Amino acid sequence: MKLLFLVLDGAADRPNERGETPLSMAKKPNLDSLSVKGALGFHYPLGVGRAPESDAAVLSILGYDPDKYYTGRGPLEALGVGYSIREGVEVAFRANFATIDPESRVIIDRRVGRSLESWEARELAKAVDGMELGGGLGYARVIATIGHRAVVVIGVKSGRLSGDVTNNDPAYARVGKVSVAVPNPDKMLAQVRPLNPQDEAASLTARLANEFVDKAISILKDHPINRERASKGKLQANVILIRDAGDSLPKVTPINQLYGLKFGAVAEMPVERGIARALGMDVEEVKLYDAPKDEVLGERFEATMKLLDRVDVAYVHLKGPDEPGHDGDLNGKIKAIEDIDAYYVAKLVRENWDESLLVTSDHATPWMLKAHSDDPVPIMLKSSRVKADGLTLSEVNAAKGSLGKFEYGWLIMRRVREMVFD
After folding, report:
1. Residue 177 pLDDT > 90, yes or no?
2. Are 142 and 285 within one domain?
3. Of the candidates 201, 217, 246, which is a domain's last residue?
4. Is the pLDDT of residue 422 over 90?
5. Could you give the 3-state DSSP secondary structure of residue 17?
6. pLDDT tens per residue across span 208-257
7. How high is the pLDDT of residue 15?
8. Same-domain check for residues 297 and 402
9. 32 and 381 in contact (C-beta within 8 Å)?
10. For residues 369 and 363, what is the distance between their CA atoms, to the nearest angstrom?
């Protein structure tokens, strides 16, 4: 018995007055043909009323309660690019190259208009990597990942640091260890602050992080990459937003041991790769990002088939629908879902792949909201051991399905394990 756990990043949405969403509006004949043979339900990734970031949501739907195990996105992003932080003396942050007005420090675009090429980000990262902080006490490492995304590590040569600090990105707020999306966030670049002002390690982390951001602004404004972008009328990547600090990796029971099954992952982004590695999953690497969608999704499908030859459960995370959701692009989100159907799911159908299939999203990214939300997320399970509901996958149909409601994402895999493998 095999299980393909397919996650369509941010595909879930909020129904309009007619009950329509991108999932229901998209032409997805292949996914529909599989969904009608499965059972539907819905879940709240972190519980009712909480709008999650992807990392906490992914940790949750793989079966780990983020309130117990989550230690911050930064260390997971770092692990995803092969950097293991030194616990206690290094703090990792997820970072975005972004655009601000350098005088007012008002954020113009949190992602440089999604126009920053990965090679440009690598050049910008080189300019601020290895920065000395605190008069020689501390340092910063900067690793560009994909597009505008990066990892920032703040470290000290002596003393201790703590990840218990706030974000300078106002779009996300720290609630304990977890960051949650902020509706209608402030546009002003924030200061990093200790969550507990009496915590000396957190206070030092905040001081060094703010010093890093200030110095990075000074360096990036005159960088040749930004001068060239300005000459072409493009947004400049003249600030680094940092969020989701962490000073350690999650201490968890490895996922294979937790379920008594062998798990693997096909993950596009560093954070998903980091989570897979932290949980002890077999990772099948993929390389294409900027190629045509048929090539990118074809590579993901081939990686999935290779992985399923050696694992019981293949977790496959496809990024497509989330970005147009953040951009408020309804048609773009519909197209991203249709691309996954045409270039990935269609291959499952053509090959008559008849093993078990679990499909969901890590969270909702309503295109009208342009941010992650706390909306319920549809889920579909198709298996020879599961009675079909005869419904296509959508938010409205999910509420009618026999799987019912999962109050937390971390309850999903336990039940699926029982239904499919026991």
Report:
1. no
2. no
3. 246
4. no
5. coil
6. 999 999 999 999 999 999 999 999 999 999 999 999 999 999 999 999 99
7. 96
8. yes
9. no
10. 13
125 and 203 both lie in a single domain: yes
CA distance 279 to 248: 14
- What element of type H or E holds 5? strand 3-8
> Is-contact 77 92, C-beta < 8 A?
yes
| DSSP 8-state secondary structure symbol assigned to residue 11 | B
DSSP 393: S
Give the pLDDT confidence of 45-73 residue by residue, as tens digits: 999 999 888 899 999 999 999 999 999 99
Under DSSP, is residue 341 helix (H, G, I), strand (E, B) or coil? helix
C-beta of residue 71 within 8 angstroms of C-beta of residue 246:
yes
As a 3-state breakdown, the chain gives helix, strand, coil percent values, each rounded to 5, of 35, 25, 40
Neighbours of 214 (CB within 10 A): 11
Please indicate, yes or no, whether residues 117 and 236 belong to a single structural domain of this protein.
yes
Q: What is the Cα–Cα distance from 38 to 388, expressed in whole angstroms?
A: 4
Residues 319 and 214 both lie in one domain: no
**Is residue 413's pLDDT more than 90?**
yes
pLDDT above 90 for 150: yes
Distance of CA 220 to the CA centre of its chain: 26
Asked if residue 255 lies in contact with residue 62, where contact means CB atoms within 8 angstroms, the answer is: yes
Range of the domain at 356: 3-70+251-420
Q: Does the pLDDT value for residue 174 go beyond 90?
A: no
| 19 SS3 class | coil
Choosing from 191, 213, 246, the residue where a domain stops is 246
Domain count, the chain: 2
Angle separating helix axes 270-278 and 73-80, nearest 10 degrees = 100
Beta bridge partners of 106: 188
- Name 141's bridge partners: 153
CATH code of residue 400: 3.40.720.10
The confidence band for 420, taking pLDDT boundaries of 50, 70 and 90, is very high
Half-sphere exposure of 58 (CA within 13 A, CB side): 31
The C-alpha atoms of residue 253 and residue 189 are separated, in whole angstroms, by 38
**Strand, helix or coil for residue 125:** helix
**What single DSSP character describes residue 234?**
P
Answer whether residue 267 shows pLDDT above 90: no
Helix (H, G, I), strand (E, B) or coil at 132: strand
Closest CA to 38 of 354, 352, 351: 354
Give me the sign of the Cα torsion angle 368, 373, 376, 377.
positive
